[in-house]
Structure formats: C-alpha cells, structure tokens
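Run log, item B.
One chain of 180 residues. Sequence copied directly from the ordering sheet:
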Amino acid sequence: MVNVFLIGPMGAGKSAVADVLEAQGYHRYAMATPIREMVRSAFPWAVGKAEQRAYMQQVGAFLRSFHPNPILVHANTALTLAPVVIEDGRTQEEALWAHEKGMLVVVLDATLEVRMKRVLKRDGALPDMRTLADNTEQDFAHVRALRFDTEQKSPEQIAAEILEKAGGDHDDASARKTGS
C-alpha cells in the first residue's frame, strides 16, 4: 500500500477519512502532534481545540520558517510505519514534501458553512476570523492532487477511492502547485 497524505482546511473531513484508512491497516500520524505538545507546554491556559488553534498556527508558522522545516523532519519518522496516513497536511510545502516521499497526496474540502458546522460540533466553538484567514487554512487550495468534496461523498467512499488509487500509479498530478 502507498502512504497517503491528506491535506485541507479545518473541518474538511481529514480525520474522518484517516479513521477509515486506519481501520484498513494504515498507521496514523498527525503533523500537528509536536506543535500541539509545544502549545500545551507554553500556553497551559489555552484549553480546548478552539482556543489552541490560533496558538498552534503561530507556533507552526514559526517552525515552518526554519530550514530544514522541523515539522517535516519530525514527520520523516512516520514514514517508517508504512503504510501510513498523515492526516493533517496544511501547506504546499508539506504536500510537495509528501509527493517527493512517494506519498499519494489527497486534497479534501467542503464549503465553509459545512466545515464550520463540523468544527462547532467537534470543538464546541467556532474559530475567529483571524484563524480562518491563516495561511494554513488557505494554502491547500493551490495544491494540484487528487481532490474530494467531502460533502458529496462519505469518508468510506473517499477512503475506498484512495485505496483504489493507492494501488496504482499516483504520480500524475500528486502535489504539484497550481500553474507548475
């Protein structure tokens, strides 16, 4: 099985699809795990996912400013778990890294209204406008890869299509930037 990299904005359904892939034998890895640990340590008053998100975006942006990107260096360890699904890609740089590692890059999205309903149900609160405007909520749109509208298909249907695609050649459009 080919390793899978899921990318998209909050509430797009990345974790729901990762749940299905995990049930199919994939190991699961979240690139946000080391960022979340740093935020919990540095900002202990930020409890709950909604409160932590803005801090996580700022810490993530700081880490992504380094070369090499420590988020990607840490994610390399997940590749030893093959097959692996990385469930929380956020940027073009991350998608290109995944493509270079031979992963099947998959973009998941839904309308803002549907995503916010999902986030409210999951987190108990909506993100503020600054959080929504963050690069990590926008950059996925520029990734050219296998795409799914998660309003149109269930996580099970999407996972089945990913597994079908992962069995064949996935080098056609995976993780190229728009216009390249």
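Observations after the first pass:
- The CA atoms of residues 11 and 118 lie 6 Å apart.
- Strands lie at 4-7, 27-29, 84-89, 104-109, 143-144, 146-149, 176-177.
Flagged for discussion on Thursday.
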